[in-house]
Amino acid sequence: MVNWNLHIESDPGKLFGKPTIINTRISVDLILEKLAAGDTVDDLLAAYPKLTNDDIIACLLFAADSIKNEVIIPKAS
Asked: What's the CA gap between 24 and 29, in Å, rounded?
């Protein structure tokens, strides 16, 4: 399994600290938005030559880890 910590960094001096693929200015949210819009992994790899398949998987794992322990408390009706 891919360890997202080896692929994603958050540097306050790069894109205002947004999580990005290490050694790029490609943000995690950009990759997630493109996948949600229907782009394929092959589309992303062609559009961003520095990107690897593991980088894309790392974005998905990062997103999953980011919300894994989030608790949703329903509003009283």
From this structure: 14
CATH number of 4-64: 1.10.10.10
Distance of CA 24 to the CA centre of its chain: 12
Mean pLDDT over 9-35 rounds to 97
How many Å apart are CA 24 and CA 48, to the nearest integer? 10
Q: Do residues 22 and 9 touch, judged by C-beta distance below 8 A?
A: yes
Q: Report residue 77's pLDDT band, with 50, 70 and 90 as the boundaries.
A: confident
On average, the pLDDT of the chain sits at: 95
In 3D, which of 25, 35, 24, 76 has the Cα closest to residue 57? Answer: 35
